């Protein structure tokens, strides 16, 4: 499927803690997206059916019945849109139903700004909403087209694992007790690892390493700090250990990475 689709926003509404849908099914004249921020619901669109929660974009083509039922109070963005270039019949099938995004930090940010703009309908607000909706879509496309790196596998991010990812993100550059994290979520370490891998395509330890190396890469290019100091800022004991991990994961030692042209 081509990856150059561009969304054109028609309508955006933000629903907060919706207990039930007014109609258990509806049909729209535009493409429709339910971008779930909190809660869960079931859906059926043509042959596609399932359950959607945070990280899910549920997409329904125009003039198609959209069956839905809330499982928990639902906070979501209701979006009507069109495409700059209408998809073919085959592409339409692949764009229908539940689409997943795993980069929850980026998604949180887009949703936050959409919430702030939810009640505004002037031209400037609509332009900003257009930018945010396009960013969400491009994020989905990016993850779909680099599945080996992102680890996208279509599994729903459950609430405990979402909390685990948020905790790791907030504490990635210090010591993290993975066993303690698992117990705090009423999971065993094995359950945490298995469910985290199902949601994000990587273990919690791999997720932590990725965050640390992303920060290390940025510091290598943007500062003159020593490798030992960068290691300390990124959660590693010393520069030797950082260098070993960096070479293994990024394919070159930090010193070589630092010598790359800067922009």
TrEMBL record:
Domain of life: Bacteria
Gene Ontology MF annotations: DNA-binding transcription factor activity; sequence-specific DNA binding
SMART domains referenced in this protein's UniProt entry, alphabetically: HTH_ARAC
Occurrences of domain HTH araC/xylS-type (ranges): 162-260
Name this protein carries in UniProt: AraC family transcriptional regulator
SUPFAM superfamilies found in the cross-reference section: Homeodomain-like, Regulatory protein AraC
Species whose genome carries this gene: Paenibacillus anaericanus
The UniProt record lists the keyword DNA-binding: yes
Keywords carried by this UniProt record: DNA-binding, Transcription, Transcription regulation
